[in-house]
C-alpha cells in the first residue's frame, strides 16, 4: 500500500505561550484535492510551514509521501511544489529570470512545454516575462508564484491562499488547472483558503481548523449531510395541533399557518407525519457551505 | 550552490564595484598627497605638527612616502568602509527571511546550511577581492607615481597590511552572520552591528588616547590590526591574524548552528 500523500500526526506548534497549532492529525491520500479552511490566524499557515520544514514542531510529525518533513526534509521537498501566502520576489529580476533561477535550484528543470502551457493558462506574455518584478501588480506576482509552484510538475502541491489577489478570470484558470491535475490523478493538492466558494469548487475534501485545533475533516457532501435542511411548511388554514414528533426534527418557529423546522436526513418521515394536515406548500433550503463553515467557526460547535 | 552564489553576487555587484572605486580613489588621493609632501619635503613638519596621540597612533605613516602610501590600509574611513561592507553582505540571511525568499529557496531540496555557506562565501570573496583591489591600487599607484629613488612600502608590508585588513573585515563579517542567522530583519542586523562596530572602534581610539582604557584593549577587534607596528615590522602578525580569524570562525559556526535550528 502506498504512503499517504500527506500525513500529519499530532502536529503541535507553540509560539511561547501562544498556541499556533495543537495536535493536528490528518491524512491526505494521493491524487486528492484537499482544502484547508480556517479564519485568519487559525493556524493554516503554521501547519503549512511545518510541512515545509520552515518551522520546527513543538511535538508531532508531518510526512509527505512517506518522507518525514524534518528528518527527511530534502526528499520530501523534492516532491513538493509550494506557494507561500505572500509571493516573495527578487524585485531586480525579470519574471523570466525569476522562474529560471527557481527552476535551476528545483528538483528538476521545468519542461519548456509545461512552462508554455502555464503561461497560456495564466495569460502571461513574453512581454510580461521581460519586465522587472518590482513593476508587477499584485495579481501578476501571484500568477508567477503559482507558476513557480506548478512548473516542475511536483507530486504534491502545497498552496497557501493561492487565489488571493487574482481576478475572477485567473481564479477560473487556476480552478481549471487544479481540476486538470486532479483528473490526471498524479498530483495531490493541499490548499489553504478562507474563500469558501473556491474550496467548494475545487476540493473534494476539506479540513476545518479553529484556533489551532482541527474541527472536522469531511467531504463536502458529508459536511452538508451533517447539517439540517430548513423546511418551511405553509398551511391553507390555521393549524393548532401539536407539531408531530419526528426523530431529529427541531422546531425553529411556528405560527398558525407556518411551521419552520430543521430536518436532518431524509424528508420522508416528516412528510408522512404531516398526513391529514392542510399543507399548502413545503419549501426547504439546503445550507450553503458558507453557512456550515461559519457555524463550525463559531464557538461551541461540536467537532 | 553555484546558482545561489551567482544570484547573491549579482545582487551585490554594483555595491562591490562602487566600493572598489572608492578604495582606488582613496589610494590615488593618498599617494598624490604623499607625493606632494615628498616633493615639498614637508614630512618632518607634518610629523611635528600633529598632536602626540596622533603621532603615537599613526607614527611612521606620517614621516615617509612609503608610510603615507601604506596608511590607506589602516585609515579609519577605509577600515570602516570595508567592515560595514562585510556587515551588509553578512546580513543577507536576515534579508532572505524578512523578504520571504527563504521560503522559496527552501521549498526546493536545498539544505538550510547552504544558505549560510552561500553568505559566508559571498562575504569572504567580496571582502577579499576588495582588499586585493586596494593592494593592487597601492602597488600600482606607487609604481606609477613614486619619485625616482623613493621607495614605496615593501611587498611584505603590503601583504601583512592587506592580510590584517581582510582578517578584520572577515571577523566582523563572521559575527554578522551569527547575528543575521538569529534575527528576522536586515535592518535589525545592520543596526546592531553598526553600533557595535562604531563602539568597538571608539574603544580602540580611547585605548590609543588614554592609558585608563588600556585594560580593555583586548576587547576590540580593531586592536588586532596595528598598522604602525606592521610598518615597523613589530606586530605580532600570527597572533593578531589568529585572533581575528578565530572570532570570524566562531561567528560562522554560531550562524550554522543557529540557522539550522531556528524557525523561519
What Rg of chain B is obtained from the alpha carbons, in whole angstroms?
A: 20 Å
List low-pLDDT spans of chain A: none
Shape descriptor of chain B: globular
List SSEs of chain B in N-to-C order. HHHHHHHHHHHH
Proportion in helices of chain A: 25-40%
Describe this structure in words.
The complex is a heterodimer of chains A (303) and B (264). With 303 residues, chain A is α/β, with parallel strands linked by helices. Chain A has helices at 44-51, 73-77, 95-104, 112-121, 126-130, 138-150, 168-184, 196-202, 220-225, 268-273, 289-297; strands spanning 6-15, 18-28, 33-38, 59-64, 67-68, 80-83, 156-160, 188-193, 205-210, 213-219, 229-235, 250-255, 258-263, 279-285. In chain A, the strands form three sheets. Chain A has a six-stranded mixed sheet, with helices on both faces. The mean pLDDT of chain A is 89. Chain B is mostly helical and 264 residues long. Chain B contains twelve helices and no strands. Chain B has helices at 2-40, 43-49, 52-58, 65-70, 76-90, 92-99, 101-105, 112-145, 155-180, 186-209, 227-231, 237-261. The two termini of chain B are 20 Å apart. The mean pLDDT of chain B is 91. The A-B interface holds A 49, 52-56, 74-75, 77-78, 80-82, 84, 86, 88, 90, 92, 101-102, 104-107, 148-149 and B 3-4, 7, 11, 99-111, 261-264.
Amino acid at each position: 500500500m502506498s504512503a499517504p500523500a500527506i500525513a500529519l500526526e499530532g502536529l503541535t506548534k507553540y509560539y511561547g505561550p501562544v498556541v499556533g497549532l495543537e495536535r493536528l492529525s490528518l491524512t491526505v491520500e494521493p491524487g486528492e484535492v484537499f482544502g484547508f479552511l480556517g479564519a485568519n490566524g487559525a493556524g493554516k499557515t503554521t501547519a503549512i510551514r511545518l510541512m515545509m520544514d520552515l518551522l520546527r514542531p513543538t511535538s508531532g510529525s508531518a510526512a509527505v509521501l512517506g518522507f518525514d518533513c524534518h528528518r527527511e526534509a530534502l526528499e520530501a521537498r523534492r516532491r513538493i511544489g509550494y506557494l507561500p501566502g505572500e509571493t516573495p520576489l527578487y524585485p531586480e529580476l525579470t519574471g523570466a529570470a525569476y522562474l529560471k533561477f527557481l527552476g535551476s535550484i528545483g528538483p528538476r528543470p521545468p519542461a519548456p512545454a509545461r512552462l508554455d502551457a502555464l503561461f497560456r493558462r495564466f495569460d502571461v506574455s513574453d512581454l510580461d516575462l521581460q519586465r522587472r518584478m518590482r513593476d508587477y501588480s499584485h495579481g501578476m506576482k501571484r500568477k508567477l508564484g503559482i507558476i513557480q509552484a506548478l512548473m516542475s510538475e511536483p507530486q504534491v502541491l502545497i498552496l497557501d491562499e493561492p487565489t488571493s489577489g487574482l481576478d475572477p478570470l485567473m481564479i477560473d484558470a487556476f480552478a481549471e488547472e487544479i481540476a486538470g491535475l486532479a483528473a490526471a490523478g498524479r498530483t495531490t493538492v493541499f490548499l489553504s483558503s478562507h474563500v469558501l466558494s473556491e474550496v467548494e469548487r475545487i476540493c473534494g475534501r476539506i479540513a476545518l481548523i479553529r484556533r489551532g485545533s482541527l474541527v472536522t475533516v469531511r467531504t463536502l457532501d458529508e459536511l452538508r449531510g451533517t447539517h439540517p435542511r430548513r423546511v418551511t411548511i405553509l398551511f391553507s388554514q390555521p393549524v393548532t395541533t401539536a407539531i408531530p414528533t419526528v426523530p431529529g426534527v427541531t422546531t425553529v418557529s411556528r405560527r398558525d399557518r407556518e411551521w419552520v423546522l430543521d430536518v436532518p436526513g431524509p424528508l420522508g418521515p416528516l412528510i408522512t407525519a404531516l398526513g391529514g394536515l392542510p399543507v399548502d406548500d413545503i419549501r426547504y433550503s439546503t445550507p450553503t457551505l458558507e453557512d456550515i463553515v461559519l457555524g463550525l467557526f463559531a464557538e461551541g460547535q461540536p467537532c | 550552490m553555484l546558482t545561489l552564489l551567482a544570484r547573491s553576487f549579482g545582487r551585490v555587484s554594483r555595491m562591490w564595484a562602487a566600493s572598489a572605486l572608492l578604495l582606488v580613489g582613496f589610494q590615488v588621493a593618498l599617494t598624490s598627497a604623499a607625493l606632494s609632501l615628498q616633493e615639498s619635503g614637508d614630512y618632518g613638519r607634518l610629523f611635528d605638527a600633529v598632536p602626540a596621540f596622533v603621532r603615537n597612533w599613526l607614527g611612521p605613516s606620517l614621516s615617509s612616502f612609503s608610510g603615507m602610501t601604506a596608511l590607506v590600509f589602516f585609515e579609519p574611513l577605509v577600515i570602516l568602509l570595508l567592515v560595514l561592507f562585510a556587515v551588509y553582505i553578512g546580513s543577507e540571511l536576515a534579508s532572505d527571511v524578512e523578504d520571504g525568499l527563504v521560503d522559496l529557496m527552501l521549498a526546493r531540496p536545498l539544505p538550510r546550511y547552504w544558505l549560510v555557506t552561500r553568505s559566508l562565501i559571498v562575504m569572504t570573496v567580496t571582502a577579499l577581492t576588495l582588499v586585493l583591489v586596494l593592494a593592487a591600487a597601492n602597488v600600482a599607484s606607487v609604481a606609477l607615481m613614486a619619485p625616482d629613488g623613493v621607495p614605496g612600502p615593501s611587498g611584505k608590508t603590503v601583504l601583512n597590511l592587506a592580510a590584517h585588513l581582510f582578517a578584520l573585515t572577515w571577523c566582523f563579517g563572521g559575527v554578522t552572520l551569527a547575528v543575521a542567522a538569529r534575527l528576522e530583519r536586515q535592518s535589525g542586523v545592520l543596526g546592531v552591528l553598526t553600533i557595535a562596530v562604531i563602539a568597538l572602534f571608539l574603544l580602540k581610539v580611547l585605548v590609543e588616547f588614554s592609558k585608563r582604557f588600556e585594560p580593555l584593549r583586548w576587547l576590540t577587534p580593531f586592536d588586532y590590526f596595528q598598522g604602525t607596528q606592521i610598518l615597523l615590522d613589530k606586530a605580532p602578525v600570527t597572533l593578531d591574524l589568529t585572533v581575528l580569524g578565530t572570532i570570524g570562525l566562531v561567528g560562522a559556526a554560531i550562524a550554522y548552528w543557529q540557522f539550522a535550528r531556528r524557525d523561519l
